[in-house]
Each structure stands twice: as structure tokens, then as C-alpha cells.
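User: Predict the complex with fe (iii) ion.
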Amino acid sequence: MTNKPVWIRRASQLVTLAGGSAAPVTGKRMNELGIIENGSLWLENGRIEMVGTDEELAAAVGGRAEEAEIIDASGKLVTPGLVDPHTHLVHAGTRQNEFNMRLNGATYMEIMNNGGGIHATTAATRAADHQTLYEESKKRLDLFLLHGVTTVEAKSGYGLTLEDEIKQLEVARQLHEQHAVDIVSTFMGAHAVPREYKHDPEAFIELVIREMLPEVARRGLAEYNDVFCERGVFTPEQSRRILEAGVALGLKAKIHADEIEPYEGAELAAAIGAVSADHLLRASDKGIQMMAEAGVIGVLLPGTAFFLMAESANGRKMIDAGMAVAISTDCNPGSSPTVSMPLIMNLGCLKMGMTPAEVLTAATINAAHAIGRGGQIGSLEQGKQADVTIFDVPDYMTLQYRYGVNHVHTVLKKGQVVVK
Ligand code: NIG
Ligand code: FE
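Assistant: Here is the predicted structure with fe (iii) ion placed in the model:
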């Protein structure tokens, strides 16, 4: 890139999150934000070149000041571009009818067992062609960006045939190539046992292990492999086989664990060394301890608990146990149809007992680690990719306190202004 340097000046708070690039930030250290008041950033060639106070940068920049496009961030908060480490971005259709059914007393699992839920979105996604899926998903990605998110993870799992899983992953790849937001892809063929395998789930697991995983790996379409480990979906034993098959092909393990019922998903994540265990609403104390010891990142999804009217994961307990916690929207049409990481941060504070500082760490550097990008994004440090969000609030506490409003002022991706 040969664009003009960008100089962001005089931020009332520049939250660097410095120091966590090598490993996820665990326990109480999640409160250390590396705040610089009257902060300044020099971005060049898509990277962060200088970070410091405005006085420090003014002295260092000297005569080069005139080359730069200047963004005045006085009175504003500057953070790393937010990272969403768990989404079901690529899908077709919506399920507001199920929302209404749940408000009339039906449960999420009842709806799914009657052919709705994931099955309904699978039918819609199978029926949609590549272009339709691309357009629907791009709209969501545009909204993510408007809410300050510069990287998202995206899962397949609404195809559940080889062809339709690949279609979803190819849409994600095209979005990654063409959209300002970067995408990290996860294969989730084991999202549900499709209706046609209802009476022979083992045959479907064989299909995932013998055909889908090898083909996805061969085409380089995903970095992670995820499973919905839940009573009535995939057992811990089945989940383990599917995740180990992925690891053997170079796909790192993630797991939807202990979302609806306690099912020893956290324990499984620790036993197999998964990169992350996600949801964890009903994780056991033993599972939390095991994840802390094994270095599994807990990806918590308080929007899902909120939307399913369930009790949230105990983020406080996990951090106090020494875990690294990340947070995410879980953006999907059934259990969390939102794209708002700022709302998720607020729910992290109010529903999971996390501090405003901890949720910001969870939405940036720890989220980056949950998708293997801790060395490139998630903090404002010299040499890192210049992904930056500027919020029109004076400090990070206000961002989560004045909730339900989009405070995003400017977003820069790889040093270029993409939202203004
Ligand atoms: O993370 N739990 C499984 N998968 C999604 C929901 C998918 C859907 O309902 O379409 C989740 O909550
Ligand atoms: Fe999910």
C-alpha cells in the first residue's frame, strides 16, 4: 500500500491493550488496558508505526507531519478494531417466527427437534445460491463494520451436505477478499444432524469425518473445526472424534460447549486442547478449572443467553479461576440475531459480572487470540496491522455505560478510513 500516512491525534483515551500479543491475557491481567491519555497513533503502509502521547509523536514525526492525513480524536476514545471471534455470518433467511414461538413458551430445543431452528436455516441456506448468500451476508458484514468490528470469525454449518458446506465457506472466502472486514473461517459440518440422517446419526458423522473435513482441508477453506456438543445434537464422544479428525488434518478445534445443559463440553475442550470453548453457560466448576489449566480460551456469548432468556455464563468465575475470556455476538438467525459488539460488551458487564476493562480486553486482544490472530491484531502496538476504531465517547467506561447507542465515529482498516 502506498497511501498517505494517517496521524490520529489527541485522543482523550487511547487504549492500547499492549503486551498481550504473544499469549491470551488471563485472569486479573484482563484489567490492564495500557491507556495513554492525549494519545496519538501514526499509521503507515497498513501498519501501526508509532504509538504514544501526542507530544511524543509530534516530536518524533517532525517534518513528516505535512505528509499525513490528520484525524483529530480530541474528546474521543481510540481502541483496536473490535474482533468478533464467533459468528454464523453466512446464512440465508430469518427466524422471527421462532422468536414469537419462544415468547409464547416453546423452547429453543423443542423448536429444533420439530424441524425448525438450525434445520429451518439449513433449508433456506441450501436453497440459496452463492450470490444470494453473498449479498445477505455482506449486509451483515457492513453492519459489523459500522459497529466498530474489523475482523470476524465465520462458521459454516447451515449446509450439512458437502456441497452446501463448501458453498458457505466459499462465500466467506469471497467476503474476506472483497470486504474491508477480514474473515477467519471455521468449518462446522457438525452443527446439527440433518433431517435426512435423523435415524442414522453415525452415518452423518462418518460423512463429516471421511468426506467433508478432508475436502475442506484440501481446499484450504477453513482454519478451525467446530462442533455443537449438546444433549440431542452431538455427544461428547462424537464431538471428540469429529474434533480429533479435524486436528489430524490441520484444523484447530473449537467447541459449542455446555450451552443449554451441562454436558462436560468444557472438560472435553480441555482434554483435547481446543483453542476455545464457546458459550459455557452451564460449564461445571471442574470444567472451568480444567480450561484454566489447559489454556482454553472461553468465548462467551451473552447476547445468546439474553436472547434465549437464559442465565449467562459466569464470566466472573472464569476470570477469577485464571482463564482467558473473549466475548462475541454469536451472530446467527436463531439464538442471537445481532451484529453489535458494543451491546455484547454491555451485557458482559451487566450479565456476566465482568468489568468494563475486562470486556474490552475480551473484545480485542483475547478475541484475536481465539482466532489465532493475537500477533497481528487486537492491540495498538508498533508493527501490528492498523485496524483502529474511534468512538465518540471520552473513555472506555462510557462506551459500555451509555448502552444501546452506536458510538462509532471512525473505523480504519489496514490504515485506511473505511467508516467515517
Ligand atoms: O451458537 N448452538 C448452536 N448454534 C448456534 C445457533 C444456531 C441457530 O439457532 O441457527 C449458537 O447458538
Ligand atoms: Fe454459535
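The pocket of N-(iminomethyl)-L-glutamic acid (ligand 1) is lined by residues 88, 117-118, 121, 228, 256, 259, 304, 330, 332-335 (CB under 6 Å).
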